[in-house]
Structure formats: structure tokens, C-alpha cells
Amino acid sequence: MELARIIISEINDQQVVFLREVGGSRAFPILIGLFEAMSIDRRIQGNVPPRPLTHDLLRNVIDQMDGEIQDVVISNLVEHTYYAQIRIRKDDDIIEIDSRPSDAIALAVHYDPPVPILVDDEVLDQVA
User: Fold this and answer.
1) Closest Cα to residue 82, out of 102, 97, 54?
2) What's the CA gap between 77 and 58, in Å, rounded?
3) The domain spanning residue 95 has which CATH number?
4) Interstrand relation of 81-90 and 14-20 (parallel, antiparallel or unpaired)
């Protein structure tokens, strides 16, 4: 999947990111908070803060612990709530960290190139 669009509204509490299937036609929105939306938008615009913010901090922790983020996976949808994992390679192990999709996507765009965003087929079937 790729981040196709982000909508930031100053009058609503919930912002929207749209994920689109790479090489396909399926797409869907995820409602996220303002902080995560601003973090994603800031990175997409190339605005790097002078001091690390939350997603910069998480990236720095992963890097300093000799981990390598492999991808983020939106793995489940239960009662309109999405679930995600951040998958980190450390030595020969894959460590899966439970995450909100908004934080996982925000972390993914903090890398150059962005970390792959995967969505489980069952989730795509539910939202298509």
C-alpha cells in the first residue's frame, strides 16, 4: 500500500489518511488524530524539526538498538478499529510491536525511502 492522501482539518478532531493499493485499485481511509496527521504531513513536506519529536524518537531508538524496521502491517479491523504491528528485524529475529495504524504509518514515512505499509487481505476484503 502507499499513502495516497492525507486530509487535515483544523475544525475536526479526526483527520484522514487514505491508503491505496500499489498496482491495484483498492483504497480506503483511516481516521487518525491531529498529532499523528501533523507528524505524517511534516515528513511528507520535508520539514524536519530541530529536535526529535515522538516518531523521530521511536526511529532513533530502533536505530540505536541496532534494529531495522522491516515494514508496518495493518492486520485487523474489529468494530471500526484498525490494528497494526511495526515489524523490526533485530539480528535474526522479527519483533512485532503492537501499534495504532496512525503511529505505524507516521513511523513508516520517517524513513527515506518510506518503510513498506502492508495491509492484510482480510482487512482489504472488509473495507473494499
Assistant:
1) 102
2) 24
3) 3.10.690.10
4) unpaired
